[in-house]
């Protein structure tokens, strides 16, 4: 399956460039550059669109799974009360953890910003670090929020049937996985 997909991707990407190069009498590597320069626009190979499209699909899947988890019953009032205490404790832990990480994040951001400003490294490294750190923290928050909201729902699902409990738990875990991928 994977080998077939890889073959389709490689043929779809290489053949048009090779054909363009053959018409102009140049190699397939130079064809993309010459074609872009001749038309006055930047040509992005279609294969590069797979990552953003995959990210969007992953985020949509995470949203759908989140909605399915939230649609499950929370259980009895006692289960809801216990889940609320667990959620409160988990969020307090996450808040404390993020305070410590924020200090490191700010220090490293300043160092990377200075290094980019004086020309030791590219300025985009600083931007990449900021966006990566922000989205990593956001993924952690969303994962913790989903996990704590799913606890009582998983317990209630397991009381109904083993399959239902596993479905809720698996979907809650998959939300975190898809958010990280997306």
UniProtKB/TrEMBL annotation:
Chief place of localization: membrane
A GO-annotated cellular component: membrane
Coiled coil: none
Keywords (A to Z) from UniProt: Ion transport, Magnesium, Membrane, Translocase, Transmembrane, Transmembrane helix, Transport
Transmembrane segments: 45-66, 100-118, 124-144
Membrane topology note: Multi-pass membrane protein
The keyword Transferase is assigned to this record: no
Localization, UniProt: Endomembrane system
Pfam family membership, one: H_PPase
GO MF, one example: inorganic diphosphate phosphatase activity
Protein name from the UniProt record: Sodium-translocating pyrophosphatase
UniProt organism field: marine sediment metagenome
